[in-house]
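Is this the right way to post structure tokens for a design question? Let me know if I should format differently. Anyway, here goes:
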């Protein structure tokens, strides 16, 4: 994987925690796995995504390039998801929601499977 939502979550946690170790733990992965994922992405992208803050004890922060790539990916993902949700609402007979289970749009009512006519082809 070059870069995806998993890397974004990891980088956001590094930014929040100021520590790769704490970020990895909060996401349920080992430090070694998190480090390896970041190094793989950095090599593929040709730039550093994180950097040390001062000494080893001061932790990590996102580089300017890491922040730019993360923000750009999030903006792209939101745009793609918005368009996909619009299409899904037009084409599918059930209520759809955003990534992470957050409902987007609609009236918030629950539709039972028996109320859906999946053969509907309007």
């Amino acid at each position: 994987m070059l870069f995806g939502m998993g890397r974004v979550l990891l980088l956001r946690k590094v930014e929040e925690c100021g520590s790769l170790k704490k970020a990895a733990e909060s996401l349920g992965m080992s430090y070694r796995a998190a480090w390896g994922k970041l190094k793989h992405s950095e090599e593929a992208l040709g730039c550093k995504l994180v950097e040390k803050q001062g000494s080893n004890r001061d932790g990590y922060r996102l580089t300017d390039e890491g922040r730019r790539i993360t923000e750009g990916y999030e903006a792209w993902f939101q745009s793609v998801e918005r368009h996909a949700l619009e299409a899904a609402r037009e084409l599918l007979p059930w209520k759809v929601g955003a990534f992470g289970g957050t409902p987007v749009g609609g009236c918030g009512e629950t539709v039972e499977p028996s109320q859906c006519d999946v053969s509907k082809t309007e």
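Format looks fine. Someone answered above. Worth noting: Residues 5-95 form a domain with the Arc Repressor Mutant, subunit A fold (CATH 1.10.10.10). Residues 95 and 101 are 11 Å apart (CA to CA).
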